[in-house]
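Why does residue order matter? Because the sequence determines the fold. Keep that principle in mind as you read this record.
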Amino acid sequence: MKVVVLGDGSREHTITILLSRSCISPKIYVLSSYRNPGLKKAAEDSGGQLFRCNILSPSEVKGIVDELSPDLIIIGPEEPQFHGVVDTLVDGGYAVFGATRKLAEIEKSKVFMRDLMWRFKIPGRLAFKAFTDVNEAMEYIENAGDVVIKPARQAGGKGVKVIADLQAYLSDIKSEIRREYAKKLISDVMTHYTDIDYKLLIEERVDGVEYTLMTITDGHTVLPLPLVQDHPHAFDNDLGPETGGMGSIQGPGYILPFINQQEYQESIEIIKSTLKALQTVVNDRYVGVLSGQMMLTPIWGPTVIEFYSRFGDPEVVNLLHVLDTDFLDIVEAAVSRKLASIKLKVRDDLVTVAKVVSPKGYPNNRRVAKGHPISVDEGLIRSNGCEVLYAGVELGSDGNLYTTGSRIATILCSGSNYKVVSDVANKCAELIKCIDGWDTFYRSDIGSESLVSERMRLAEAVRDVYTYRRKNNLVSIKVDWIPGRGATIYDYR
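Structure:
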């Protein structure tokens, strides 16, 4: 059996390892924009090959696929979906695990996602305003209180800014910060994207505990995976700029220490309702991954921050040590509309911690973070029971490994309790270094006893509020009032 995996990061490295464990022993072919050493090895060990190409070009991808004639194609990242790669392959008669362009709009356009949730009254929705005109956005921002400013398009985790307006004497200063940040967002991030009309999305700010629910679907059945918590901020204690993800934790079993079974089930229902609404609007069958980036908030309990039309990176890495079902069987069942026949088996005796090692300069100055030779002591990492999943690393023509400017690699460790696993992961993260002395960094606090305990404390406080509101039938109505423009009413009922 031939399987093609499209993509070039640790998410795709994880997928190739999961595929290699299948009893079918497929030949794995990888289409990547650079020679990721982990992907190259996984492909060649299976009897396959890695091909370099423009993974955003439908014609270039299809040209290679036509030569290979694979039985199955798995799309890793979101951007090939946005660029119509899946559509071209499906039209060519191939079995593809990945969302078509119209379905992937659920991730690409945050405005489309919010509109969909309000149109179908899906629980977990937030009040929002979207803007195509910069001046209108500035006027709204002048009067905005607690808000989150986002690019209207998925931009690889870049550009999210949370601004609380709790101190009245700082209102003028924070208003200026909002204006300047919005301008910077348009000039530095959104100027690179011409495939979407809206520029800015401004949402109400909510507090709580974030978590990710990844699901696999064949368009009818939804197969929920264990909850994972991503850590997007660059530095310890959730400080620094947002990144594509600096690490994640999972377990034990399907839930996290700070999310209970009922909240997990409610999150699944939100995904199911969204999938049904999306397929109704788009009139297409969803085959692939639909993930909810969620937050436990005082308004709804489980609340949607964003949707992803693919596996999270690094969230999917956590599956490596706990998934006891043949991954290839799952993907084949999704593509053939037989996902209901799959009985997912997940180890409930382990917790997993994934930690990302990045070069100094990431995420805001990738130019200076690029081109540094690195060393990875894979043998010592494995002797500690951990795995290395390569991300932004390119195998040079001289046989050395070089940084691409993005995240270098993810370390995955597992064990019986978070503290021990986190400590081992920290030890292994130190085994990835730039040979030329360029600094690398990782988050030592992911999975730590103090951070997990803090999440549990916060979740309990939030839970007290939203359960009280439900019990007493306290319905929220939010009114947005802008001088000279009137009011917008958001009815959460």
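The longest helix spans residues 449-471.
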